[in-house]
Amino acid sequence: MHDRTPPTPHLTDAERIDRLRLIRSDNVGPRTFNSLISHFGNARAALERLPDLARRGGAARSGRICSEEEARAEIAAAKKIGVSLVAPGEATYPPRLAALDDPPPLLGVRGAPETLTRPMIAIVGSRNASGAGLKFAGQLARDLGDAGFVVISGLARGIDQAAHRATVQSGTVAVLAGGHDRIYPPEHEDLLTAILERGGAISEMPLGHVPRARDFPRRNRLISGASLGVVVIEAAHRSGSLITARMAAEQGREVFAVPGSPLDPRAAGTNDLIKQGAALVTEASDVINAVQPILERPIVLEAREGNDEPLDFDTDPGERECIVSLLGPSPVSLDDLIRMSGLSATIVRTVLLELELAGRLERHGGGLVSLI
């Protein structure tokens, strides 16, 4: 069973430092990072333009730009605890995660390298799981591991830890919401140590980053993005696991749900997923049969440099003001902004990027944006 594409050549040390500086600078997320690289050709040129672009977006002063010394210190500190910072397409970057349109530009990875490139199935669910839910999560994970899949999850209490524990021997991957040295919850540090012997851990956050509530949806995007599909076991309404399922659907991943009693609120979300078209799962073969055709298709990594949507930094102040006036605290789609403003997609994307670099724009799931 394979899930690999040929790795791209290694970044040079200088390129890795420049890319780390760019993604660690204020208001630069993965999507903005890729747009900047595509437009300016490399991270160093993008770094030089950040202050000017932030001013154009209305920032009173430009945000912090990560220094070369800070980047070198992070790489050295990561190396000390066995963490490598790898780019999409490099040998230990999970290939399906690399194929997203907004993969982390540099991903902190550690553990058994081969585990990170094998086909993955995500198992997520309630932190406050029932005994039956925990038992089924362990059994499903074990069966998927025996079939050659790597189980990926978020190291959380409940369903996540049950899936990890069942696949420590066959290989499992933990996706961290904080830095590699800030494990959450703290009582799972021993579990992570066991995972790393034959499995792996990944994070897009810098060392020392303590996870906050808003970091968990970002983590969930990695869980779904690295996998062929996501199995949800016990999820109440408004559960974080349902966010993972939504992201999986947006990323073109398979969504599976385990049915539960209508009387158990922990099953309300999973039962709703089934009503909405998620594949019902009662055994591992339900998952394996669904993903088998996907495994037979090669993963294609698009070249990002020069292959992103174009930007136009010669926008007129009036055009910028028109777009800003259409934005507010309620999320709106890019397509709606283009239609309502009557401006080109290139101009709208450029203004949104400038606003983001100024710290004035928030991006939401499904391509929605709002003004901060």
TrEMBL record:
Residues 316-367 form the DprA winged helix domain. It comes from the Bacteria. GO terms for biological process: DNA-mediated transformation. Residues 86-291 form the Smf/DprA SLOG domain. Pfam families: DNA_processg_A (PF02481), DprA_N (PF21102), WHD_DprA (PF17782). Transmembrane segments: none annotated. Belongs to the DprA/Smf family. This is DNA processing protein DprA. InterPro entries: DprA, DprA_WH, DrpA_SLOG, WH-like_DNA-bd_sf.
